[in-house]
Amino acid sequence: MSEYLLVGIGFSFAAAVQPGPLQAFLLSTTAAHGWKRTLPAAFSPLLSDGPIAIVVLLVLGQVPAGFAGVVQMAGGVLLVYLAARAFSEWRRAEGGATVASTQVPRTLLQATGVNLLNPNPYLGWSLVLGPLFLKAWRDAPQNGVALLVAFYGTMVASLAAIIIVFGTLRALGPRVVRVLLLVSAIMLGALGGYQISAGLWRLAA
Question: 171-191 pLDDT, tens per residue?
Answer without folding.
Answer: 777 777 777 778 778 877 887
